[in-house]
Specification:
alpha/beta, Arc Repressor Mutant, subunit A, D-Maltodextrin-Binding Protein, domain 2, 10-stranded mixed sheet, about 40% helix, transcription cis-regulatory region binding, DNA-binding, WH_DNA-bd_sf
Length: about 300
Amino acid sequence: MENKMLDNKIETFMMVAHLKSYTKAAESLFISQPAVSQQIRQLEEEFGVKLFNYEKRKLFLTTEGKELLKFAESVKVQTKNIKIKMKLSDKQSSPLNFATTFSLSNNDAWKIVDYYRSQRSKKIVCQTFNTQQCLEALNNGKIDFALIEGNFKQDDYDKVIIRNEPFIAVGKRELGIEAKKEYDLRELINYPLIYREQGSGSLEITRQILGMRNLSPIDFKQEYQIGSLSLFRRMLLDGVGIGFCYQCLLTDELDDGIIQKIKIKNMEVAHPISLVWLKGNDQLKEEIQVVKEILK
């Protein structure tokens, strides 16, 4: 077993939960299927709850099972972090592993890296993902914290809000966009729409904005769904179409007049930029406070 601080029965439970199969869990753990079933029954007796149910021959976690899985994963991640810190020499501080969403990977990520680079004994690992991938990296213990935008299920995480960032529509003047005009959202369907990939917080907010007018990307003249942030920016700046994004993504270009904000009637949207980490990870309290001050 990788994590001896967790009871073997809990490890077995986690394997069944992730693989959704007693048989596959038994194969992965190199034990018999009856042994897996017995350990799950023992856990259910200890906690006095049902952990799994079958629905149409498929295995699902119960509400109590989901709660136990959250707790077990949190313990596993914290145990891994403690082991790493204990193995490091006195001369070397623990590595800083974090991620930001693509939209925040320039200014905000640089502020964090710039602060910590003076601490030469600290290894810095900074990754960029979309919102969903950041949360998955947290759950899997690959990163300590994430800086994310957009909506997410908050029950599993602790967070602090760094700021509220305007979410705006943008387009080039060459498309025929008038800087002083206030558009009805439906007027914009005559333009091509450039929008982000599945799992992106920006895509979720874009869909919400369009949905308020019973619109979707398919209603626009042409649609481009782009998974690369650099290509998304390039297409907007080259005038391929209009798009919705966080203002911080194009701050300099907006200030210089290279691209302009599209004024839309009754649309003033701002969403929180959140610093997020696994719930109950008290080891990060000091680090989180430092990062919060950096990003003020």
